[in-house]
Amino acid sequence: MEEVSHEKLWHRLQWDPRHWVKEVIRISSILYRFALDCYTVSPWRMSIYIVFQVWGGLTTSIDMYFTGKVLNTMQNALSTGSLDGPILLQVIMLRISLRCIDGSLYHLNELTKHWLSTRVRNRFERRLLESNLRLDLSSCEEQETFARYRKYLEGKYAANAWNTFDEIIEGLKIFISTISQLTFLFGVLGSHPGGFWFSLICLIHAFSAVSWRERSYKNCPTYAWDSNPHFRHLNAILQIATDVKYRMEVISDGISNYLEKEWFKASENLVDIREDHYSALRADKSLISRIVERMIGDLPLMFYTFQVYFSPKAFSLSAIALTQQASQSLSRTFYIVLNPYRPFSGFIQNAEELYTLQDSDPLLKMTDGTLDYAECALNANGMNITFENVTFSYPKKTENVIRDVSFTIKQGQIVVIVGLNGSGKSTLFKLINRLYDVNSGTIFVNRHPITSYMTKSLRKVMAMHYQTYTHYPLSIYENILLGGVDDGSVDAENEQALRNSVKEAIEMGGAEEIIEKQPTGMDTVLKPKFRARGHKTEAAGPEFKAKMDEITKTSELSAGQWQRLALARLFYRAKSKRVRLVAVDEPSASLDPKMEYFLFERLRSLSSIHGKTLIYVTHRFGYLTKRADLILVMREGQLVEQGRHNDLLKLNGEYANLYKLQAEAFMSDE
Ligand SMILES: Nc1ncnc2c1ncn2[C@@H]1O[C@H](COP(=O)(O)OP(=O)(O)OP(=O)(O)O)[C@@H](O)[C@H]1O
């Protein structure tokens, strides 16, 4: 798909000075803020880096000035017929020294740059992660918003804060370099008639610079992948933050602070480890090769010098030298201009976007309340929930999926919600967890409107198992532990107590067998976020390919096994004293009948022994519904019946029909 611009050429040519002044002010303020943010990461290191960049911008002009001057002297010597040997030697020595200094400085710069790049990236990525994790579900479901974050957090080259800064500095360096060279050239070579050849040499040199870059890749099949556990962990956390499928649970379980802390820990552990697969695939250059790389640019000049030595009258030395120098330096400008992947304006836009996302509070759609649930309901073990004429439609949808629904759930009750597909059962869940706000009507929690609570404090006392449960790309142990984090930390006396508690939850979820089969037990990572990059792998031999397959292999579980792990996480959360409501949406969809029975009994004990309110969404009738204190029957977004099993059967309505349908199916089988 191409977006055809219908803008008329005439409009594009119109020039509004006020607009330009405004643009310049806007861009300058972004660049100033960005530069200041990068500079304060480490002022002295950044100063070194900038001094090297400025040096880089001026080196070529210094070279040109130097060469022009020396070669003029040589020209004079040649015109008089005698060549001064010691001066020539001095010239060559000085040039070699200059190259050595330049190469060494470059090398030092590369070292500083690496230190700075990780810190600058960390600074911006942490801020982005913080603002990303503040987003509510409605904002996250707008794909565009999430994609914007993902672009920056996934570490793609062009979207990386350090590369943005580096490219902007590079652009300024090129600017300084070009201006200084042109000033010099016009001063010295203004009247020289070699314009055509001059441009041609510049172009040829520019293209040779591009091909040099390509040759710098290793000349054999290469494959780079993440093996460092801290780096994998860091990426897993970024994936949880940037993939919308995890968001519902991230919000419900209140694990944002935990994720931030874990990310910070992982990045602290990594610090200087480079993670760029491209650089791993690239042939590492030594100091010597960097100096040689620079000397290659001087080969034509050396060639001319020898030519002049043998037939001095055929060449004008100063013209050759300056053409050579100018072609070398301006080729860099050509290279930047010719390179479509690195447009300078794109990097300024990047810096602007980084701040738009970072300061993204307006993206939050929900307003928070002020009541702390724990303080309001000190003595209650369960939770009271009342829906009063609630109507709801999903953001950006016009159809009401919940219509005028009213009911009351009392403390410690077991409530079962039934109804056909799409009748709004899961949506009721999301409203109870305040993932969305209602369009009209009110939801009361312990007699206060749900909106008057601080959402964090409310979600903290709820344990939710969604129909679309997910498995985080972390170890099994951490997956379960995440069910019980409180404001970023896990409450336990020690590591062993924590592990025992997780084990207990695994048993409650019926997942012991799965853990036993894993090579490293509950520390196994089942779904790692795996990043790898190959180079010329198609030409690799079978042994190399087998090793690659081994690296990329991940374990797979059945749907029921994944569900058991998710239930272990739910139990880990639900057994905590602070949790007052346990709500499960189709928790047995993938379970066998035996496991389903145990699951319901375990959940029931949370209510009967510990007094927690239990809400259970299901399509299966019978055992469950007979033991429920309240059954809510949903149809097309409306609550059509409510009551206990026997009362509803007597009504002979929707519930009785659904019940009979299932009962008849069993009877006919028999
Ligand atoms: N995130 C969403 N955005 C827009 N519409 C949605 C969203 N989630 C659900 N819906 C719509 O809301 C309606 C009710 O869906 P809901 O998932 O609550 O039904 P359900 O009774 O739980 O169904 P099932 O038995 O299949 O789980 C459906 O028409 C569905 O298409």
From TrEMBL:
The keyword Nucleotide-binding applies. It comes from the Eukaryota. Residues 385-661 form the ABC transporter domain. Keywords: ATP-binding, Nucleotide-binding. GO terms for cellular component: membrane. Coiled coil: none annotated. GO terms for molecular function: ATP binding; ATP hydrolysis activity; ATPase-coupled transmembrane transporter activity. This is ABC transporter domain-containing protein.
